[in-house]
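Internal ticket - ligand job 331, NAP:
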Amino acid sequence: MRLLVLGGTAFVGRHVVLAARAAGMDVTLFTRGRTNPELFADVERLTGDRDGDLSALHGRRWDAVVDTSGYVPRVVDRTLDAIAAATGHYTFVSSVSVYADPSAATLSEESPLAAVPEGTEAVTGDTYGGLKAGCERAVTARLGDRALVVRPGLVAGPHDPTGRFSYWPRRLARGGEVLAPGDPGAPVQFIDARDLGDWVVRMAAAGATGTYNGVGPAGRLTLGQLLATCAAVADADATLTWVDAAFLAGQGVVPWTDLPLWLPDDRRGMTSVDASSARAAGLTYRSVEDTARATLRWDAGQPLRADAPGLDPQRERDVLAAWHAADGASR
Ligand SMILES: NC(=O)c1ccc[n+]([C@@H]2O[C@H](COP(=O)([O-])OP(=O)(O)OC[C@H]3O[C@@H](n4cnc5c(N)ncnc54)[C@H](OP(=O)(O)O)[C@@H]3O)[C@@H](O)[C@H]2O)c1
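stdout (structure tokens):
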């Protein structure tokens, strides 16, 4: 099977490529040649720009395309101009950020979608979801009977450039007193990029169509359980101190950016996404322990980015000291 990946050299796309190669597919990548250009030296690499020169795609045919690099409907549309007629199947990797109301009790594929004003092209935290929803519409309008739309939640695992999930295994491995935010019983969801890649490739091979949320893990997982798993995997001398959400707000600690996977109650829908359709269609999950262990092992060899999410050690100590002082004062 001939598979074209639009992208494929960072994280989600990389795991799609790895899964496709493991499945024996004949893989071609189309990128600008900027991100990890040395990767996949034995795979056909086409160079161009989805928002520029698409000529490398002309005159070619593929059995399936996986699009991991679409963010702006106009750009997705012009890619489709080049390849819609040249592929039997098209997978668009979208996001659970497409949903309009992150405070909903649960989010299913039928939940209302976000929108952005006509002509919006700048991808920001505010426009990302509405733009992705527009990209989905562009794909389904052109290829509805051949299109698969996958909406992942937070993606975790080796090669994650965002550093979000990685914060926790790394922090637990450093040991000492660890600031754990909010409620240990709060639900968390994520999908291992390796599970996502495997499933997308199996769906593309089967010619499956439709729209699916792609989140995990298999059962209900709490933040407390996740941090305990990270601690067990790290095997370090770490103790968790759970700090009240209101106190953290008073300290200016921001959910998600300062402490990843911790969301305020008014975004609970983002941790209660229904993936039962995806599971019925064959999405499977490795264990949380496997994801934490593999992430920690990969992360250990990576330099820490200056803009990585999470609290830096001094700030964490300061907030913990303030918490203990407030606790002592109230006794
Ligand atoms: N990470 C998460 O937690 C998460 C959650 C939900 C959804 N998602 C979705 O998952 C996808 C992210 O995947 P990823 O970045 O890890 O994918 P990836 O496919 O591994 O990396 C992005 C690829 O796109 C290529 N690219 C970027 N701009 C391009 C352009 N103008 N023309 C041609 N190629 C271009 C990059 O190469 P060059 O730079 O060399 O061009 C790179 O190969 C996105 O669709 C995102 O919305 C991610």
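Auto-summary: The chain has two domains: 2-157+190-214, 164-188+220-268+287-330. Residues 7-14, 30-35, 49-51, 68-69, 93, 95, 152, 154-155, 162 surround NAP (CB under 6 Å).
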